[in-house]
Amino acid sequence: MSANDIPALVGDAHHYPAVLQLFGNAPPGRILDVPAGHGAFAQMLLEAGYGDVHCLDLYGDQFMLRDPRVEFRQHDVSNSLPYADGFFDYAFSIEGLEHFDSPFTFVKELCRVVRPGGRLYITTPNTLSIDARLKYLVSGYYPRFRPLAKEPQTVVGQSAVHAHVSPIYYWQLNHFLLRAGARITRVSTNLCLYKPSAVKRLLERFLAHVIRGNLRRRGFADQGVASEAMLYGDCVIVEAVKAG
User: Fold this and answer.
1) Closest CA relative to residue 229, chosen from 83, 92, 129
2) 143 CB contacts (<8 Å, ≥6 apart)?
3) Average of pLDDT values for 11-19?
4) Domain map of the chain by residue range?
5) Is the pTM of this model over 0.85?
6) How far apart are CA 81 and CA 48, in angstroms?
7) Phi then psi for 107, rounded to 5 degrees?
8) Band (4; pLDDT cuts 50, 70, 90)
9) CATH code of the domain made up of 3-193+234-242
10) Is the pLDDT of residue 160 over 80?
């Protein structure tokens, strides 16, 4: 079975390859993948040469991957993660935070189960992109969160797999990672989205120039928030390292 045989719950084909590209040629280690969905990302980790992969998800009946190198547990992340402190070398949470009622409690738990010096990779819809800022300014919602504003009752009836309920503000995520003992080292994206209209592209370029200049004048820490990935990215990918 290959990763192509396992359907991905993430609605974009660029997510998993982008995360693996940021992960790079990291040394072997014990890996956590949560939420694991059907197991497509775990299968890609196996194909990249990694073993000892531990997968968690709320829905046990959807996990399709069967491999002795992978351990799956059904688990609700509103509860503490079922692992000892520092159990993992790496932890991945791909498009999970926005589905959780208490995303930052989960971030704290994710950091707890990673060893000092270990790495975390978290992805979530980008609320700092120019497109996201404009949508929020004009209509009061972020991309990928429109149903939360327009059809709230529909979202209430959705499963956690489909319901986007927690827009993540980058600096808030940075704060909670720092509180949990981890520091963001790199940011990336699954896909940069540029407007097809030349006029809209010029407007976005102008706004990007304004944003970058404003950040410099105000002395904001450079954590990639003025990068192409952050200003044009669909979803943000964060790499964080836990303090040694």
Assistant:
1) 129
2) 125, 126, 129, 131, 132, 135, 234
3) 85
4) 3-193+234-242
5) yes
6) 26
7) -60, -40
8) low
9) 3.40.50.150
10) no
